[in-house]
Design goal:
Layout: E1 7-8, H1 21-24, H2 39-56, H3 61-64, E2 68-72, H4 75-90, E3 94-98, E4 116-118, E5 128-132, E6 151-155, E7 177-183, E8 195-200, H5 204-218, H6 223-237, H7 240-265, E9 271-273, E10 283-288, H8 294-302, E11 304-305, E12 307-308, E13 318-322, H9 327-355
Parallel strand pairs: 1-11, 3-4, 3-5, 5-6, 6-7
Antiparallel strand pairs: 2-8, 7-8, 9-10, 10-13, 12-13
Helix pairs in contact: 2-6, 4-5, 7-9
Length: 356
């Protein structure tokens, strides 16, 4: 039997999303000194990020215009410098509350990290609570905090109209400090990467200063991707047609990919789609009614890699399937699933006839 090529649909790479030709060539990015970021460039980067975030979620513009802004290499990097910055600010381990299931990047917050003390009781004294929206394994949008935490982080990596019909808006309280994170990499830009964290509320300036210091220490050569991402933002911000085409085209791609995959899953009655991932977000969340490892089922049956629910603090009955992948890969997975189901039906039919 001819072996099939393994298809990766676990990692959240947006390689199937529409990217304009100007971005496909790394936005013609040429840098003479790739390991030096000049202050004027740094300020320009921040200005463009403020404009971009306001454009994709105008209801939060009142925050984006004045909040302290930290930039880094991506969501994971921003999470890391936040923990280090808050640890330096508090001068002790951070009492952290994480909703479960949580978003994948939360795995960078290692349980053995001496800077973190995990708290599972929402009624306890909490320093930092992470609310992950609008991308969650259980299909909900966590908005209202469950604790008395003084610092609240909202992950906005997928909080734009490509992924959700209406971006989330947070009503802030004066006695709390809010951190909103996001990244350019989730709009399909090759070799381009920005991560950001808006910090607003009491102690925001001090926390942002600690965080940005950690960025400078840890960023290494990643700033090459910053220049590329900044050029791409210029391309989208300076021409409304470019922006609208990006959003509408990628909405169509995601919706089409989801329709293909959901159709392929229909014959497998022990599998259900977790709403609202059927029409929102960059992923399809899928759950089995059986007490089994669904990720292993996809791998063993179809040679397809999907992300195990355990990666999100959920269980092995749940998986995440990347809908930002190439449509050709989605179609191939659907073909394998239809073929396997047809073969199984034929085998059962033949056995039934023999028994007669």
């Amino acid at each position: 039997m001819k072996s099939t090529k393994q298809i990766e649909l676990g990692y959240g790479v947006p390689d199937g999303l529409y990217v304009p030709k100007v971005a496909q060539s790394n936005v013609n990015c040429t840098i003479n000194k790739p390991y030096i970021i000049y202050q004027k460039d740094f300020d320009f980067f921040k200005s463009n990020i403020r404009k971009w975030c306001t454009k994709i979620n105008s209801s939060m513009s009142h925050v984006y215009k004045h909040a302290d802004l930290v930039i880094g290499n991506g969501s994971t990097h921003i999470y890391t410098v936040l923990i280090r910055g808050l640890y330096n600010l508090l001068k002790r381990p951070i009492r952290l509350f994480l909703e479960q299931p949580y978003w994948f990047v939360a795995q960078v917050l290692k349980k053995e990290d001496p800077q973190i003390k995990y708290i599972t009781d929402p009624n306890a004294d909490i320093d930092l609570e992470i609310r992950c929206t609008p991308n969650n394994p259980d299909g909900t949008e966590y908005i209202e905090p469950r604790t008395n935490a003084k610092y609240l982080l909202y992950d906005f990596a997928y909080n734009m109209t490509i992924y959700t019909d209406k971006p989330v808006t947070i009503n802030q309280k004066k006695n709390k400090t809010y951190i909103y994170t996001g990244t350019v990499s989730k709009i399909g830009v090759p070799s381009s990467r920005f991560g950001w964290g808006f910090v607003d509320g009491p102690h925001s300036s001090e926390l942002a200063k600690f965080m940005q210091t950690e960025v400078i220490i840890t960023v290494g050569g990643g700033n090459v991707a910053w220049y590329s991402a900044n050029n791409y933002l210029n391309y989208l911000l300076n021409n409304e047609k470019h922006f609208k085409k990006l959003m509408s085209t990628n909405n169509k791609i995601l919706n089409n990919n989801k329709k293909i995959m959901m159709k392929a899953l229909e014959p497998y009655k022990f599998i259900s789609i977790e709403k609202p991932s059927d029409h929102k977000g960059g992923y399809l969340w899928v759950k089995t009614s059986k007490n089994s490892n669904l990720a292993n089922w996809f791998l063993n049956k179809f040679n397809v890699v999907v992300k195990n629910g355990k990666s999100f603090g959920a269980n092995q009955q749940l998986v995440r399937i990347n809908m930002m992948a190439k449509t050709s890969d989605i179609r191939e997975v659907a073909r394998r699933m239809r073929k396997k189901f047809t073969i199984k039906k034929k085998i059962k039919f033949n056995k039934t006839r023999k028994s007669k």
